[in-house]
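User: Could you go from structure to sequence for me? I need the amino acid at each position, not a summary. Structure tokens:
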């Protein structure tokens, strides 16, 4: 699979997304109503999906890099 960014860009994006998620979880703890809590939990769920996708992308890029290095040695 081809990606438009480098591993470092995806890692930076992952770090930023994790920070957003942490802030959101803190807001959820301070939520004063069920409505506000559930809205925040929906946003947190989306961020968890983003984090998972970014982790899979980074893993795939690292595998591609290792395969390319192996092919270069041959």
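Assistant: Here is the amino acid at each position, in order:
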């Amino acid at each position: 699979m081809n990606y438009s960014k480098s591993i470092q860009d995806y890692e930076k994006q992952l770090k930023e997304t994790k920070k957003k998620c942490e802030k959101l979880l803190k807001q959820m703890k301070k939520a004063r109503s069920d409505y506000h809590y559930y809205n925040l939990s929906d946003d947190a769920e989306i961020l968890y999906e983003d984090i998972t996708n970014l982790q899979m992308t980074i893993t795939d890029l690292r595998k591609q890099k290792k395969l390319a290095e192996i092919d270069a040695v041959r």
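One structural detail worth keeping in mind: The chain has a mean pLDDT of 93.
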